[in-house]
Structures are given as C-alpha cells and as structure tokens.
Automatic annotation (TrEMBL):
Coiled coil: none annotated. HAMAP family: Nth (MF_00942). The keyword Iron applies. PROSITE patterns: ENDONUCLEASE_III_1. SMART domains: ENDO3c. This is Endonuclease III. Residues 38-185 form the HhH-GPD domain.
C-alpha cells in the first residue's frame, strides 16, 4: 500500500467520524487510567458498567486507597482477572501518591512503570488525556492494519512503529480510535463486513486473498 492510498483511507475515516469519542467512560486522567487498566481482556461495555458504580464512590487515588482492596474487588468482580486488577489498582494509587503527587504523569516511561500498565494502556492515557499524537495498538488496530495492508507487522510494536511512520501528524491524534471503531463494527475478526465498508475499494484484503 502506498502513501497516497493510506492518506485517502485516513481522510475517509476522518470524514466518517471527525471527532471520535473514547469508548471508556472517564472525566479525568485518573478515571481514564483506571478504566483502561480494567479493560484488559474485558469489553468496554462491562468496564463502563463497573466504573459507573465505582467512580461515584471513589475516583481518586486517596479515595480508592481509603475504599480498600476488598470493597474494590466487590465492585469490579464482574470483570475478568478482577483480583489481579484490584491489586494493581491499589498499587497504582500508592505509586501515584508517593512519586507523582497523586496525579497521573504525562510521561510514557512513568506510566509503563505502573503495575498493570503496558505500552497500549500508556498510549491510550497519553492520547486521550494529554492529546499526545501517539497510537495505541490493540487487537482491533492490529487486525485492521494487517488485514488492509495499511501497516503490516508481526506484533503490536511493529505495527505501532509503522503507523507512526506512515500516518501524518495531523491524523495521529485520532488514528487509533478510527481503527478501533472500524475493527469493532466493520472489519470484524471472523467475518469482515466488506460490503458496508467505506474504505473497501482502498483496502488490499481481497487482493491478498483472491
């Protein structure tokens, strides 16, 4: 896929959804961070149900520490791996208070040092909360990029590096949201909905599978 086609894909995605909204609920960097940690191997819908109940009770590091791990587990027990996630969240709260004054740092390395926070989660926080032109690669982004041949990679790191190389700066702020939504609702894992895809004529999926 050449640069011209990639740009046309981004233009169409932008036209279709000029201001994509994050799928996880949250009104502060801390809320976004915790929601993203909870979302590992869980659906956004299930996480939003949990945070809708949790955040009115505790939505800052001091409040969650006072809330306690057992109450936290009770609130998030409908989500997979809730025991590990509860432990990570409590430890995150301790670290934020001890090293960052209770605030979520706008720093990739500092975010990745938090328990339960990988590169994807860190990039989501930096992009969503601090408007950094970083591109988080989840399973949807990885699938869409490889299937369409927009950015081919054997792992998420390779795809992320290629996206940062191929995607012009002006598109980077919303790029991962466009690909996430496209992968979630159109370019489905088992059977892509090519007939209803607004970038079908630019996609190289059929070409590579014909």
């Amino acid at each position: 896929m050449n640069r011209k086609i990639r740009k046309q894909i981004l233009i169409r995605l932008q036209k279709n959804n000029p201001h994509p909204m994050p799928q996880l609920n949250g009104t502060s960097p801390f809320e976004i961070l915790i929601a993203t940690v909870l979302s590992a191997q869980a659906t956004d819908v299930s996480v939003n149900k949990v945070t809708t109940r949790l955040y009115p009770l505790a939505n800052t590091a001091p409040m969650l520490l006072e809330f306690g791990i057992e109450k936290l587990k009770e609130q998030i027990k409908t989500i997979g791996l809730y025991n590990i996630k509860a432990k990570n969240i409590i430890n995150i709260c301790h670290i934020l208070l001890e090293k960052h004054g209770g605030d979520v740092p706008a720093n990739l390395a500092a975010l990745e040092d938090l328990p339960g926070v990988g590169r994807k989660t860190a990039n989501v926080v930096l992009n969503t909360c601090f408007h950094w032109p970083v591109i988080a690669v989840d399973r949807h982004v990885f699938r869409v990029c490889n299937r369409s041949r927009f950015a081919i990679g054997r792992n998420v790191t390779e795809v992320e590096n290629k996206l940062l190389k191929y995607v012009p700066k002006k598109f980077q702020i919303h790029c991962h949201q466009w690909f996430i939504l496209h992968g979630r609702y159109t370019c489905l894992s088992r059977k892509p909905r090519c007939k209803s895809c607004h970038i079908e004529d630019l996609c190289e999926f059929k070409k590579t599978n014909s």
